């Protein structure tokens, strides 16, 4: 069906008390406006116009989404009016949603449109009953239950304010009468704004059919005006995400301590242990075990990977690799299949080949490590000379003794060995032993002589 949607996202969001526009505050890792757009797309709406203010919201929407600018936030009605030009010629229903209501299920939007069309209405508003209607517009019905008007809290009489049925801010309209009515609204209210809500009363006055679609689940209509509501929305969405993954075959020992962002994707038989964060567009393949105390951000994990008490940022990890405990994989790494990264190792912008090991206390940065390499405890790649970064290359099967410094740029050849404690500043050919440390010297009976000298000095004092 030919449905268009307008998302209102140009408000100031004053109640957030934030330098960041309200629309960009994330809910489960995704800006709330992006979440709203995603819901509409899932509901099968492909023509989506976002009304943005003169701020960075448009930049964050990407080029997939159409937007129009509302230069000044003069009210929700004025905001919808900005989409008039863009919607010229559109002949299906127009859904209007606020960018600060990110909890609708796509089915609810579909159902609203279906209801509106079945009723042959010109305008339909989605309402819910809430315990505490503070801050919402109240739905005023006449004695036989049909729609009369919406009154904002600030404009309501005490009697009207008692109403528990609220305007969710989600509507469906027929295009032409919508814009005709929008041209008639006036900012005659406490906030001196052009209210979209007034459109429905105008339509009714002009004998158009205005209907109410009352939705059973008030949670879905939660509007985010402040950070307390943001936290409530985050909790609801997080709960839904965890439940969906569990039903899709993911085990969670203690779901309440697991945080999964909206865009992350997990496969069957993934096990998530407590206190684990899976952020951004992380992907986890079958059989991987994550946690406890793990953080993955934009990480791509192959099958049967283990990540324990570790952080993995914007990197990929091959099948069967083991990371942690206490490892830090920084962006742009690829850890090969079967590799092992152990305790207190930091890896950055590095490729680790398959079955290679960095098991203890190392920094490996800007490095290409081949396969079956063993990097001893305490190895450091000295990648930075104070001005520039340089790469280190460690070829297949090389054995790096403990506590080596590899001063980049440097190439450690295949099958070579480095003596423990070496500071390597030049290339080591394949198969060679590279040692770069001063030779050990032993002074016999030194301890005895030293002890004698000490006690003589003490006596003479
Ligand atoms: C609005 C409704 C209220 C409803 C509530 C539901 C009006 C007048 N009031 O109140 O009846 O119960 O939502 O959550 O419509 N926006 C713009 N441009 C503007 C003003 C707002 O794009 O000039 C956008 C905001 O970014 C926001 C949405 O419209 O996404 C709603 O604005 P907001 O100020 O949050 O309205 P509420 O006071 O919540
Ligand atoms: Ca709001």
Strand residue content: 25-35%
In the CATH hierarchy, the architecture of the largest domain is: Alpha-Beta Complex
Instruction: Work out the helicity level.
Output: 10-25%
Kindly report how far apart the N and C termini lie: 103 Å
So what's the CATH class of the largest domain?
Alpha Beta
Domain tally: 2
Unreliable residue runs: none
Largest sheet: 9 strands, parallel
Average per-residue pLDDT, rounded, comes to: 96
How does this model look, in words?
This protein is of the alpha/beta class and 461 residues long. The chain folds into two domains: 4-221, Spore Coat Polysaccharide Biosynthesis Protein SpsA, Chain A (Alpha-Beta Complex), CATH 3.90.550; 242-434, Hexapeptide repeat proteins (UDP N-Acetylglucosamine Acyltransferase, domain 1, 3 Solenoid), CATH 2.160.10. It contains ten helices and 41 strands. The strands form eight sheets. A nine-stranded parallel β-sheet has the order 14-17-20-23-26-29-32-35-38, with no helix packed on it. A seven-stranded mixed β-sheet has the order 5-4-1-6-10-7-11. Strands 12-15-18-21-24-27-30 form a seven-stranded parallel β-sheet, covered by helices on one side. Helix 7 packs across helix 8. The N and C termini lie far apart (103 Å). The mean pLDDT is 96. The structure holds uridine-diphosphate-N-acetylglucosamine and calcium ion. Calcium ion binds next to loops. Residues 8-11, 51, 70, 73-76, 78-79, 98-101, 136-137, 150, 152, 166-169, 195-197, 223, 225 line the site of uridine-diphosphate-N-acetylglucosamine (UD1).
